[in-house]
Design a protein that fits this description.
Distance between the termini: 81 Å
Strand order of the largest sheet: 6-7-8-9-16-10-15-14-13-12-11
Number of domains: 3
Structural class: alpha+beta
Radius of gyration: 23 Å
Strand content: 25-35%
CATH superfamily of the largest domain: Gcn5-related N-acetyltransferase (GNAT)
Number of strands: 16
CATH architecture of the largest domain: 3-Layer(aba) Sandwich
Largest sheet: 11 strands, mixed
Length: about 325
């Protein structure tokens, strides 16, 4: 029996809803990613468990039992990402880029031998559980103990931002914009591209490309811990002539895919490689039930803002770093 017309065009890795007749005469829906379609059945895999990486369910549906089938969006829908509070998104993103972390109430003291501001600052979002002057002193003491500059990352315009400024803390570094959108909107009808490799292991080619575009004098072991830590995360890349020419890192937390370390070799730009890598990571995250995607951009980077806005990203919130007054 040939596949129903709607299933005949189904391709592996597409997400479909297949309604199948049951032995008792009722019908049930299977929502999953197509593994294969032949003349007898369609095989689907359900979502992938983020920890184990194994599909939570698999189905073989005889075509004779299919009542109706339709292609579904590549990722689950969800409310407007703007409805997620900035504090909630900041705590989700904190899991994506960290080495050593120590809680201070809702705040997070972080250190990574000085490599990047995000990994070497206190995420001052929420209630520190102690009076603010004591919390600020704890941030400074932690920084001194770990030989990093004392910094507090705050949501711009938040209560914590104002309270630390009242203590004399002032802005340092350039502010960062957090852009967000629904993952299904980013993926649209773009299926996984075979030229984009997405894996969950940090391989030498990916790491070499990262080091080339972001040279630093940090301890390589610390950088590896930062990139490789805190699963579930994945590494996307495009290779040409034996060389990795585009990379990106994705991290999944609380239904959010965070995209970072997005880079394309200067000789390969304006070909859509960064977007392809981002969407490759998006398909990886969609299989793990991600619903939204965010990235962080220098507030002054007008070109990057324009490029991401064309994809559908919108400003969610802004954060900045505050430093204590000189003693």
């Amino acid at each position: 029996m040939p596949p129903p017309p709607s299933l005949r065009s189904a391709r592996p890795s597409e997400r479909w809803v297949v309604r199948a007749r049951q032995p008792d005469g009722s019908a049930t829906d299977h929502v999953g990613w197509v593994v294969a379609v032949d003349d007898e059945a369609v095989r689907l895999d359900g979502s992938v468990d983020p920890v184990s990486g194994v599909a939570t369910a698999s189905w073989r549906v005889p075509l004779a039992d299919v009542v109706v089938a339709r292609q579904a969006p590549p990722a689950r829908g969800g409310p407007d990402p703007a409805r997620t509070p900035a504090a909630a998104l900041e705590h989700a993103s904190a899991e994506a880029w960290a080495v050593d972390v120590e809680p201070l109430g809702d705040w997070l003291l972080r250190s990574a031998s000085g490599f990047t501001g995000r990994a070497n600052s206190c995420l001052a979002v929420g209630d520190p559980g102690v009076p603010l002057p004591e919390a600020a002193a704890r941030v400074e003491a932690y920084a001194a103990a770990h030989r990093i500059a004392p910094l507090a990352q705050v949501v711009t315009g938040s209560t914590e931002d104002a309270a630390l400024q009242d203590l004399g803390w002032g802005e340092t570094y350039v502010a960062t914009d957090v852009l967000a959108m629904r993952l299904a909107d980013l993926l649209g009808d773009h299926g996984p591209q075979p030229t984009v490799r997405v894996g969950e292991e940090l391989d030498p080619g990916w790491r070499a490309a990262f080091d080339a575009y972001r040279p630093n004098d940090a301890d390589p072991a610390v950088v590896t811990r930062l990139l490789d830590g805190r699963r579930p995360r994945a590494f996307g890349s495009v290779e040409r002539d034996g060389e990795v020419v585009a990379v990106g890192r994705g991290h999944l937390a609380r239904g959010w895919l965070g995209v970072a370390a997005l880079w394309t070799h200067p000789d390969q730009r304006r070909q859509g490689l960064a977007t392809a890598v981002m969407r490759g990571l998006g398909h990886w995250a969609a299989r793990r039930d991600a619903r939204w995607v965010y990235l962080q951009v220098d507030a002054r980077n007008e070109a990057a803002h324009a490029a991401y806005e064309r994809l559908g990203f919108r400003l969610h919130h802004r954060y900045r770093y505050l430093a204590p007054p000189e003693r």
